[in-house]
Amino acid sequence: MDLVLFTLLSVVCIGAVLGMILSKNQAYSALFVVLAFACTAGFFALLDAPFIAVVQIIIYAGAILVLFIFVIMMVDVDAGLSPEKKKGTLYLSVLLGAILLIELLIALKAVFTPLGTVGNTSSGSPTDLGHLLFTKYLYPFEITSILILAALVGAIVLVKKREKE
To answer: What are the domain boundaries of the chain?
Structure first.
């Protein structure tokens, strides 16, 4: 049964990602992202990590996608880019594509290397996650909270500037 669910979730997730990439409408793309996040939560549920699956739905499919929708509504898509900016974005996209290709090659190399021994087989329970989050990963957790706070302050500043216009 797990194999059938995994196959179904995989097909739906790949379809959602392709729909997101190929969709011309930004709102539809955001809805396809919600579907892809829901499939990812299904993968976590299949891995016996129900807490992570629920967090995936609540945080990503709920909160972050609402922010995406707000950005889509506030950005004037019809304005377009000037030819100079289009040229700059072309160079930037080529650079980012090269970086992503390098990351893909590194990930593929890691896939084909033999696995070592597993030190800690955590079940993904809230207790295990909380212990790891506040011991081993305390600094990344705090840095993430500072980044989120900076994004919140930046959003407030942008809204204030837009209100003055």
So the answer is: 1-78, 81-112, 125-165
Residues 6 or more apart in contact with residue 37 via CB below 8 angstroms: 56, 57, 60, 61, 65
Q: How crowded is residue 90: how many other Cβ atoms within 10 Å of its Cβ?
A: 10
Fold (topology level) of 1-78 = Four Helix Bundle (Hemerythrin (Met), subunit A) (1.20.120)
- Cα–Cα distances (Å) from 164 to 71, 73, 158, 160, in that order, read 19, 19, 10, 7
Count of alpha carbons within 13 angstroms of residue 106, beta-carbon side: 6
Round to whole Å and give the CA distance between 61 and 57: 5
Nearest CA-CA partner of 48 in 122, 157, 134: 122
**Residuewise pLDDT in 10s, the chain (165 residues):** 888 999 999 999 999 999 989 988 877 888 898 899 899 999 988 988 888 888 888 888 777 777 777 777 776 655 666 677 777 778 888 898 899 889 888 878 877 777 555 555 556 677 877 888 888 888 888 888 888 888 888 878 777 776 666
Separation between Cα atoms, residue 44 and residue 12, nearest integer Å: 15
